[in-house]
Design a protein that fits this description.
Strand content: under 5%
Distance between the termini: 54 Å
Number of helices: 12
Transmembrane segments: 26-49, 61-83, 103-121, 142-162, 197-226, 238-261, 273-292
Order of helices and strands: EHHHEHHHEHHHHHH
GO cellular component, one term: plasma membrane
GO molecular function: G protein-coupled receptor activity; olfactory receptor activity
Largest sheet: 3 strands, mixed
Protein name: Olfactory receptor
Keywords: Cell membrane, G-protein coupled receptor, Membrane, Olfaction, Receptor, Sensory transduction, Transducer, Transmembrane, Transmembrane helix
């Protein structure tokens, strides 16, 4: 469309992806479809187990259910359309669709940063304050911590969405990415984006660094408490309750750090593939990690397969 000043108004965007590498796109389609299926089924299974098994009605699994829901929503905000685009000769997305996709991906990524910090606090309370754990981590406290995580992430994304879509977009509509990633979108704006870049840098630091510091301090206290446990069996049992969360944190922040602190690539193919790994592969690892490293999840899965969960639900009251 054209406005009165003879400028083209953007009504849709073209997602470039890897369209000049058709064979690679076919490989990525198969891989991403398989990984996305594992992600949705695995995280849905975790949510289902947490709802059905009374032994999992605890604060730790309440947080884990929210993490699983976050991973399903985060990948579903862009993977299905990306899979369709892998099969198309030209991948387009409408202006409102791009705005919604950018909002959701940014919101859910920010929310996960905060939620991982809340989960670290929960592990700190469980190991360092075991006698007061039930009192401190009650239903109201856990609900408030989860609401803070979701609220902070979505408020952060709303701020960036308002600032981004207030900019003029007049002609250039080729996004050099698989989806509407905020940096790729900002490059298409006609106006000055210095304010957007500044606020994006500040908010990224606020959303990632304080949670990371909180996670670090929590585990310093946790490890100190674990080392005070006299028996090796006691130390192993205490550490096993937080090893899955620690593994998820290392993978999540490790991927982010590598993406943003590595030397700038000469072409964008590596950056796009790394973003794909971060957005598709990392969320699918969470249910695998929690299943492999958690005896309670294994037991709940076995009980589900045997059909014992319905009997257990009748015998145990819900705690959270």
């Amino acid at each position: 469309l054209t406005n009165g000043a003879n400028q083209t108004v953007v009504t849709e965007f073209l997602l470039l992806g890897l369209h000049d590498h058709h064979n690679l796109q076919m490989v990525l389609f198969v891989l991403c479809l398989g990984i996305y299926s594992v992600n949705v089924l695995g995280n849905a299974l975790l949510i289902g187990l947490n709802m059905l098994d009374p032994r999992l009605h605890t604060p730790m699994y309440f947080f884990l259910s929210n993490l699983a829901l976050m991973d399903i929503c985060g990948t579903s905000s862009f993977v299905p359309l990306m899979l369709v685009n892998f099969l198309e000769t030209q991948s387009t997305i409408s202006f409102p669709g791009c705005a919604l996709q950018m909002y959701l991906t940014l919101a859910l990524g920010s929310t996960e940063c905060v939620l991982l910090a809340m989960m670290a606090c929960d592990r700190y309370m469980a190991i360092c304050q075991p006698l007061r754990y039930s009192e401190l981590m009650n239903r109201q406290t856990c609900t408030g911590m989860v609401a803070l995580s979701w609220g902070a992430g979505f408020a952060n994304s709303l701020l960036h969405s308002i600032l981004t879509w207030s900019l003029p977009f007049c002609g250039h509509n080729i996004i050099n990415h698989f989806f509407c990633e905020i940096l790729a979108v900002l490059k298409l704006a006609c106006g000055d984006i210095s304010l957007n870049a500044l606020i994006l840098t500040v908010s990224s630091a606020v959303v990632t660094l304080p949670p990371l510091l909180l996670i670090f301090l929590s585990y310093v206290f946790i490890l100190t408490a674990i080392l005070r446990v006299p028996s090796a069996a006691g130390r192993h049992k205490a550490f096993s309750t937080c090893s899955a969360h620690l593994t998820v944190v290392v993978i999540y922040y490790g991927t982010i750090s590598f993406m943003y602190f590595k030397p700038k690539a000469k072409d964008l193919y590596l950056d796009k593939l790394l973003a794909l790994f971060y957005g598709v592969v990392t969320p699918s690892l969470n249910p695998i990690i929690y299943s492999m490293r958690n005896a309670e999840v294994k037991a709940a899965t076995v009980a589900l397969l045997r059909g014992d969960l319905s009997k257990q639900m009748a015998c145990f009251p819900a705690v959270l």
